[in-house]
Design brief:
Layout lengths: L3 H6 L4 H14 L2 H15 L16 H14 L19 E2 L9 E2 L13 H9 L3 H4 L3 H5 L8 H14 L29 H4 L13
The structure holds adenosine-5'-triphosphate.
EC number: 5.6.2.3
Catalytic activity: ATP + H2O = ADP + phosphate + H(+)
Cofactor: Mg(2+)
């Protein structure tokens, strides 16, 4: 198996997970049990369902997730937790600051810290894509890494930075953007949306005007 991500995702001890699952499962309360059964059935039958577990702080959501994960790991099933970094899934211990009576802080593990940088994007790209100039045509290298960001404008800025590092000729593809005149009730409505304005729109699920 030569995919680093799959290797890492399978780097758990099945027997240890079995023991952990027995302990956790025996403690589940009724509500946790109902959700647990539903999720396990969904995975077993490959239904591909989404679940949203809601509950006030400290009511056992993480406990439930840990039980589900232990069960799936005991069957050698890959589980990708959103907090894959272990930040926020309970693995990194919470800390309490002086004068506080509840632990609500965590210390970000050393390996996630970028300690010196001139530009954050430059440094993140450097850490994620070492030797990008020479390896940009290496499919395996590209498959194993990605930079995730919740905001489109950050994604655009990172893309723009990385495009400059790509070799070869550049071609720009522009989208055709105009209001369809037949789709408006008012005859001159399309005049209110000049093409120059439409070209600046950056909508989610839509590529930008210039690629
Ligand atoms: N069924 C259970 N039996 C024993 N202990 C439990 C059970 N469910 C939860 N706990 C314990 O209760 C505490 C709070 O649970 P947990 O951290 O899972 O809550 P949470 O809903 O994820 O909280 P938050 O929203 O604040 O992250 C933990 O110490 C957990 O081990």
């Amino acid at each position: 198996m030569d995919n680093r991500l799959i290797r890492e995702a399978l780097a758990f001890d099945m027997n240890q997970s079995k023991i952990e699952h027995q302990q956790l499962h025996s403690l589940l309360n009724l509500e946790q049990c109902l959700i647990y059964e539903d999720v396990i059935q969904s995975v077993r039958n490959q239904k591909g369902q989404f679940y949203f577990v809601y509950g006030p702080g400290g009511t056992g959501k993480t406990f439930l997730y840990k039980t589900i994960i232990a069960r799936l790991h005991s069957e050698r099933i890959i589980v990708l937790t959103v907090a894959y970094s272990a930040v926020g899934d309970g693995t990194v211990p919470e800390k309490m600051k002086e004068g506080e009576d509840e632990a609500t802080w965590i210390e970000i593990p050393e390996r996630f810290l970028i300690k010196s940088w001139e530009s954050p994007i430059k440094q993140i790209v450097k850490e994620t894509y070492p030797n990008f100039t020479t390896r940009q045509r290496d499919d395996e290298y590209l498959k194993e890494r990605a930079i995730l960001t919740p905001r489109n404008d950050d994604a655009d800025a990172i893309n723009a930075y990385m495009f400059k590092k790509l070799g070869g000729d550049f071609i720009t593809y522009n989208s055709v953007v105009e209001v369809c005149k037949d789709s408006t009730d008012t005859l001159d409505q399309h005049n209110q949306y000049p093409v120059e304005f439409l070209n600046t729109l950056n909508l989610s699920d839509m590529p930008p005007h210039a690629l």
